[in-house]
């Protein structure tokens, strides 16, 4: 697989994403459903957004790993949040740590939504290649 990132500016580097990713000679593409703070028994977390984001990241990493892919090869990540302000002000450092830990260079879209399932307030959807 060949992966090339494009960013005509530098300001997005501080936000832990790139403007575009080109992928060639892909062996496989994994489309991961939104991963949220759902415990192994299927119950939704009712914790604060920061705690939920940590669990959502763990769940995303688990799905990617079990499918035989690597988080460093996430090329598109969509973040659904019930409060963009809360995500940016109270959780963004966790997001940046996740990106840095895997050396990711991915596109990102952050969307504020009215509601997620049950008590959930953040969800991560990803596209991964190998």
TrEMBL record:
Keywords: Hydrolase. InterPro entries: RutC-like_sf, YjgF/YER057c/UK114. Its EC number is 3.5.-.-. Pfam families: Ribonuc_L-PSP (PF01042). SUPFAM superfamilies: YjgF-like. It comes from the Bacteria. GO terms for molecular function: hydrolase activity. Gene3D superfamilies: RutC-like. It is an enzyme of class 3 (hydrolase). This is RidA family protein.
